[in-house]
Amino acid sequence: MNSLKKHPPVLWRRVFGLAMLSAAIAFAWLAYILYLPKLLGQLGFPPVAVPVLLVIEGLLTAAVEPWMGSLSDERQRRFASRYPLIVAGTVAACVLFVVLPLVVVAHPGGLLRWILPLLLIGWSFAMAVFRSPALALLSRYAAPSSMPVAAAVLSIATGIASAFGPLGRPWLLGLGAPALFCLASGVLLLAVLVLRRLDRTVDLSLPYGSIYISTRLVPPALGRERSKTNGGSGALLTRLGLIFCAGAGASLGFRLLTDIFPKVLAAAKIVPAPVMGTLFLTFAALAIPAGLLAVRVGNGRTMATGLVAMSLLICLVPVCKNAGFAFALALALGAAHSLVINGLYAFALGSVPPEHSGLGIGLYFGGGGLAMAAAGVVATQLQALGIGTGLALGSAGFLLAALCVVLTGSITAAPTEANGTPAADSIAAPET
Asked: Transmembrane residues, as ranges (predicted)?
């Protein structure tokens, strides 16, 4: 923790609250994906309905995440708060998550059974409503120079929550859908309430990224002046496109990796759960060292390095023939992924003016949604395409993301700079 104290422009209590919310989001999606085939199957939908539904939800996410991020930016400028969207989306998601298993228990027949897919899509929409506005709050809690270190806390929480998938699967299935969905909803709602409570004490002495907090308090000229540091509207549009493509590439690569790696392990008679759990726990364990490295040498450089490493390491998946090599590869993939996931917040938030932070993070997640849709299509054709083709697409996705990071100019920025302004100009809010 002493290393973290060297980076004072961070509101640590708020960051831990945001990490709790990030973990709750990951846990909710884990529960959803785990029970989705069972819920649809109990109402008589064929197995192909699962990938079709995930493709629809991915396309929906690609549109909704940037929209909600931009809408939260507007609310932040006008009313100095993103919380109306965050609270509305969270409450809707929690209510729908509790209702979903009850619909299955009611077992409607005929046309009424189509209520379930509509509710499932509605739940994914509600989750997309608040994720980008919530995670854009990181720009309020950390100065640009310290954001990779602050993001490390979110990476740890997300990695631990994600590890429940492979390592805690029997326990999660033993709970049953009603209990698990209620648990996930309760954790999600609690996380938002805790974060909101912590955020009430934030005053106007906020980190650098939030000086635009309200147009009622800050002259409009300031926003225009900040935008100029990013090269004008044309350069901004280019950066927004690159953020979207980076999110799509990185998410496509990781989704195909997590789909194909367990299949290769199972074919080699290696139990997939411990290996995949090792991957998730490794990137969680290395999050803080990765954040400190990003602060030292530059976030863009570390993120691009991690993406290139992932593109090379994923090509080694087919040669996993024994447990020792599988665990070693999982450790290497986890280490490389820690550089990527740790840097995504600083990349998305640092590539746009602070008044567009919600849009920036929304575009990254929107690109991820498009990648999820594409990966869903690939998954249905994987037997015909072959594992090698799937891994090649994953490797290409990582390389595309690395190229986008390079083209934004992130790797040439000084380690202490973001949005064109030295981190020395950052203003840290006191812990209250």
From this structure: 15-37, 43-64, 85-105, 111-130, 142-165, 171-195, 236-258, 270-295, 325-347, 359-379, 385-407
